[in-house]
Amino acid sequence: MKKIITFLFVLSFFSNYAQEKIDLNYYLPQNVNYNPKIPTPESVIGFQVGEWHVSHDKLVHYMQTLANSSDRITIEDRGKTYEGRPLLLLTITSPKNHQNIEKIRTEHLKLSDASATDVNISNMPVVVYQGFSIHGNEPSGANAGLLVAYYLAAAEGKEIDELLNNTVILFDPSYNPDGLNRFATWVNIHKNQNITSDNNDREYDEVWPGGRTNHYWFDMNRDWLVTQLPESQARIRSFHQWKPNVLTDHHEMGTNSTFFFQPGIPSRTHPLTPKLNQQLTAKIGEYHAKALDKIGSLYYSEESFDDFYYGKGSTFPDINGGIGILFEQASSRGHAQNSENGLLTFPFTIRNQFTAALSTLEAGKNIREELLTYQQNFYKNAQNEVNKDKNKAIVFGDAHDKGKTYQFAKMLERQKIKFHKLNKDVNVNGTKFLQNSSYIIPTNQPNYRMIKAMFETRTSFQDSLFYDVSAWTLPMAFDLNYGYSNNVSTAGEVVTSLDFPEGKVNGKSDYAYVFEWDEYYSAKALYTILKNNIRAKVATKPFSIEGKTYDYGTILVPVANQEKSSEQIYALLQQLAKETGVDFNAATTGLTQGIDLGSSSFRILEQPKIAVLVGEGITSYDAGEIWHLLDTRYQIPVTKLDTKDLSRVDLSKYTTIIVANTSGRTLNDATDNLKTFVKNGGVLIGYRNALRWLNSKKFIKLDFKKTKLNAKNVPFAERRDFRGAQVIGGAIFEAEIDLTHPIGYGYNKNKIALFRNTTLFVKPDSTSNYKNPLQYTQKALLSGYVSEENLEVLKGTIPFKTAGMGRGKVIAFTDNTNFRAFWYGTNKLLMNAIFFGKMM
């Protein structure tokens, strides 16, 4: 009985502590006066910071109120999220600096110009970009941002004056407005008046897909380099307008953790990052340690995380002459949870983030000249590397695909990388680049190191463990031809603005039109044609007509016997040519060299009606990538079918169902429904681990190949590292592709680069008399890390297989063809499976 009473007392104590009313004194530095004319967060949002999770609209309202109240703050709206929320940026500095802010900015940018000789850093402010909660369900950062902004606006005295006179703070209150709002809604609607710290409470178990991601379920902390999302594009635009010396990225981690700040594990830093970067990061870390010691918070550094992939917020600045800093706070994932380190309350997590934000600013002010000098030398040293590099330019392009080339160039443009048109056709290492479809990037420019990071292939590493991908070679991701040149003589005029390359309708016909499938946006054109009830067919054999040769996968649009008139079809194709970049060629006769236009080798196509499985058990990233691809790029409607409803939904209305990565556990009850769908003529497309489930339920027969490991001499302390080294976290591999097979339609080379982040290996079908349409080569590794054991197993395996079931098809991909929206080069594989799946 005594034990029960003691236990109840402890619970009561924790519960009371969790609900204890806090005020600003809990967070703010003491012995500081605050301007009473500056409104506190509570006076605007209606509750004390930490009492509730702030919604994005209230966060925006408070930031606007501060900007209207303080001459230290200006505010700008840089764009909108997919859900229409504003992407705000506050510029916070002294009123005097605000009066000269453009001059300060232009002077600061001279640090990144190695040729600038008139740079005086003695009185130059340091630039610190502070950003919060890029993962929406890691909200302590954004909620701490309320306090940081208030402190910077309201604090008075010599210390704050000195800080603001010597610092320009670019303040990003919410990197991820949509995710932050989604999570705030979840935890607020489940909050008890009598707060429970029981980890089993529904408040701490948000429903799929959770608040981590943006609208299309992307992890936006992987998009800094490739900039495919509107939130990233706004942020990177601000970054390059200023080139900050320090950028902070406030995150959360597991509830039983403490607090992490960088530099992280030294051996897991990208070789292009100077060692001095890590030393300065560690020096700034001393300020974090001192501040956290003062409030009694536990922390650690140099034990986890890494600085390798330049697509993260903590690493992207490192390739741009700045210092990126990751903060990871143990997460209450709501208002209060029990943890190994005691009761973890939301206010406590906020206070740690607030403390680290202020210690960053103190460090920036105190080592201002070191940071400015580091940035200046970063670009001077990069210039020295340029001078030594025998490669003076990189040429890239694709004569068959204007759209994909355009999107790659737009990515370069967003990163302020200068490129030129070619002044003539050029041959680089045996590849011909045409003047009107290619560009050249001189390496002699400030962003030399970023260019190297984008284009490099790397297969040897200091460490075998990676927090994220080990390769991202961007021209491979886009399936673009590229090559290094030792001169820039073929560089024509510099490209200052890019217009989407429109296609043409070559001639008007009352007979037929044909268009090739190699353009990236050909799928958008075909879907729109079919949606308008215009019949279309696909060529399964090559042919030539009126002096032009057409390959496998060419689309035929007959004019006769359509619901639309000849004039209406012509008008639609003109519109599509502008929107997609596709060229439509008029045919005045059906007589060709090869298959005639009336041949049965032209197969009729149907309008796809696509469902993507979502919900518990499905990897939201993968499902979101598919949704985003179809919805935003190809304007194809997508039905998102929740796994909990799948067993009772009428699937007959769909032509295609896509199963993203899943263990399949939540699909078991729907097995019969899905099999009926396929047998009745549907196409079922599975990705990654969904293949194990498809195989186990006999949708398709797959023979998996296992890696043989020998861990006999591995010490106990190194067991995790040994297992971690067998993970393929993200690398690029070469496969052969059969251009005559429908999966290869639209491709022009018989080799393709595939992104892989699984150890799922499928043996080729030894009973088939036909060539495997996709198969890894014997020397498959193109870029990235893979263990020797896994590389040996990978050789000759297949990343793609199809099987018939009744009147339908099952299509299996071991690898993600839509990775993070920047793998343009393999998006066509999915579109081929959707449009031509029944022919496979």
Automatic annotation (TrEMBL):
Q: Which UniProt keywords apply?
A: Carboxypeptidase, Hydrolase, Metalloprotease, Protease, Signal, Zinc
GO annotation, cellular component aspect? extracellular space
One Pfam family here: Peptidase_M14
Q: Where is the Peptidase M14 domain?
A: 52-378
> Recorded GO terms, molecular function?
metallocarboxypeptidase activity; zinc ion binding
Mind telling me which Gene3D superfamilies this protein's record contains? Zn peptidases
Q: Where is the signal peptide?
A: 1-18
PROSITE patterns on file: PEPTIDASE_M14
Tell me yes or no: is Secreted among this UniProt entry's keywords.
no
Q: What is this protein called?
A: Zinc carboxypeptidase
* Species name: Aureibaculum marinum
